[in-house]
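The records we work with from here on pair a chain with its fold. Taken together, the tokens spell out the fold as the letters spell out the chain. The record below shows the convention in full.
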Amino acid sequence: MARRWSSLFTLAIPVAAAGLAAIWMLGPESGGTKGVVYDTAPASKGQIRKIVSTSGPVRALVTVSVGSQLSGQVDDVNVDFNSEVKPGDILATIDSKTFAAKVAQAKADLTAAEAALANQEAAKLKAVAMLQAAETNVARQEGLAEKRLAPQLTFETAIRDRDVAKADIAVAEAQVQSAHASIAQRKAALDQASVDLERAEIRSPINGTVISRTVDPGQTVAASLQAPELFKIAQDLSRIRIEAQVNEADVGAVAEGNAATFAVDAYPDRQFEGRVTQVRLAATELNSVVTYTVIIEAANEGRKLFPGMTANVMIVSDMRDGALRVPNDALRFRPKTGVAETRERREDGGQGDRGARMVERLKAEMQLSEPQVAAVRQAMEELGKEMRASSEQTSFVGGGFGRDRGEFRQKMMSRIEQALGPLLSDDQRAAFRRWKEGREAVRPGVVWVLGKTGAPERRNVRVGLADDQMTEIVDGKLEEGEPVITRARDVKP
């Protein structure tokens, strides 16, 4: 019996050693330890919309506050809430007895001034007649004085009477002018009194709907430094506007003409459509939060939207149809091991042939000549030398331009612009501006594709527009349908 147990023990030793060797050769993921399972999603083509979410009150396109420029007691109110009014319609009337009396007084003053003018004109005619008689007397006395038939004193008296008559005419003309001025004053006073009498009838200045009324018959209106608001009229409620407040971080993506959809709590299952018509430059700061007012205009069919409602707005700042897209999680995924990444970088050679593709794209889009292409290539070669030199000097920390892609892109764009600037025509300059704006709208990224061997493969891409779920792939070695990795999960076999 002891011999049998000894044989079994002797046989178990090599079996256990073989098992340990197999576990060691298969690696730690084979035994009872955890494995890695990758969740993937195919790169697909579809629509991507960049949405800016905000909210704001619903307003009428034009809202006019109607008040009173006069003080007095309100006699009558002819309209109520929701009343439709037209220009010139009487909304309310103020007691006009005082203003009517002022009109009557102004008319009497005008009549008195006109009578005074007639009196002064008659006095002028009298002075003219006196002057004619004085001139005749001067002529007669002058003849008599020459013949020595009348004393010299009589002749001098006639001359004095003539001069006095001339002065009387000047006085009469001045009085006539004064009478004319007095009539003008009385007419102005009458016009003012008439205007005040007309203002006792408060009329609608526009065609619209009364949305607010703050006065009742018998109430006293006191107009001092500013006119008190009695009515508020909204013009043409068939169209409305929304004063949306957009955060400073998102306002750069909003522009006039952007489409927008919005909903209000009164109709939670209905979406309304509008369009951005204005981005106001005046900022509003509240609790250190800076916002800008964006005006959105929309149709109000059936007048279902009321002024003052709060609209929850989604502004479509940009949109792509048929774009190659991947889930946002795919751009955030990084494998735990760096083997695949290191191999991909070695195979791609760091920057790879992206520079050559950029030169070809510039040449095609801007119709560059051979000297212009040569200038771009020389600028990129010089930048590449500087990048490699910087990488070698800081290799112990992995520095250089390659460490900061944003800095490298800025330097590259600056070098290309400096090289091409003096060589571009006006049309090419406009095309270069559009190309530059397009480049600024994209950024580099990395996605990982599940290869045929089951291992992650790195793909360098350029990404553009993004929404809450998907991101556009503008350029890179990624094809539609390829499985991109979104996350890795540790599982036990």
Observations:
- Residues 96-197 form a domain with the Four Helix Bundle (Hemerythrin (Met), subunit A) fold (CATH 1.20.120).
- DSSP finds nine helices and 17 strands in the chain.
